[in-house]
Automatic annotation (TrEMBL):
<feature type="compositionally biased region" description="Acidic residues">
    <location>
        <begin position="87"/>
        <end position="142"/>
    </location>
</feature>
<dbReference type="Pfam" id="PF01584">
    <property type="entry name" value="CheW"/>
</dbReference>
<dbReference type="InterPro" id="IPR036061">
    <property type="entry name" value="CheW-like_dom_sf"/>
</dbReference>
<feature type="region of interest" description="Disordered">
    <location>
        <begin position="81"/>
        <end position="142"/>
    </location>
</feature>
<dbReference type="GO" id="GO:0007165">
    <property type="term" value="P:signal transduction"/>
</dbReference>
<feature type="domain" description="CheW-like">
    <location>
        <begin position="150"/>
        <end position="279"/>
    </location>
</feature>
<dbReference type="GO" id="GO:0006935">
    <property type="term" value="P:chemotaxis"/>
</dbReference>
<dbReference type="InterPro" id="IPR050972">
    <property type="entry name" value="SDr-like"/>
</dbReference>
<protein>
    <submittedName>
        <fullName>Purine-binding chemotaxis protein CheW</fullName>
    </submittedName>
</protein>
<dbReference type="InterPro" id="IPR002545">
    <property type="entry name" value="CheW-lke_dom"/>
</dbReference>
Amino acid sequence: MSEETLNRQQQLVKDYLDSLLKEEQNPYSIESALDLSASTVVDVVEMPLVAAELPKTGPEIEELDLADMEISLDAEINQTQTIQPEPEPEPEPEPEPEPEPEPEPEPEPEPEPEPEPEPEPEPEPEPEPEPEPEPEPEPEPEIAAESLKCLLVKMYGVKLALPIKYLQGAHDLNAMNLGLSTQSDWILGTYSESGEIVQVVDTGMWIIPERYEPDRADYAELVKLKGAGWALTIDSMLGSKEIEAHQINWNNNSQSRPWLLGTCMEHQCAVVNVPALLQGFNTANRS
């Protein structure tokens, strides 16, 4: 066998082995390879051999035995068949997803500032005490357009003019049976008349207390005031007189002597303000 033929066979074997290693190509058939080899050999045998082309004998070149070649081919084929394709590398495991970062804890809300305490309402001012009712004004001096008809009496050396319109009657004091009264020292006693209790006043002690002396009093009669339950003690009755308005010097300061209506210089007497006198009696008697 020529060296060219040998090389061609070796090339065929190499191509066969290469085809086995290529997955995409069709599997190589040993029969087709042998047929191709046989046809090639036939072609080669038919050609006249030249002595120079004959292979040299000797230790340098060993004769290639076809059987041995087939065995070696079978062995190589078997070895090739046993070569299994390398397993595809397992895909690398996907990296575990990084754990989501824990959400940062929400900052605790700052405590709301405590509301400032509402200022205590200012205490309402205490209501001012109601002013005490002013005392009822004393009756103004009676200024008559006409003359005043008065009863002139004497009491502890003082001449008084009592307007007759405020008088109800007169009595002899010595003939009266007075009941004792311990209520006030300016009340001498009481008596009953027409079912009414009448209180008898120590006139001097009420009118001129600053110079009155009870031991020197000389009361002999009393004059009852109309519809009032009060009677005045007097020394004596001097008669009646009409006093003209222009003859009276009116008292403009009723605080010092509220009972004094005015004075009459012509008759040398003090005109008594009977309504103011009665008001004083009642007020003092209630206290």
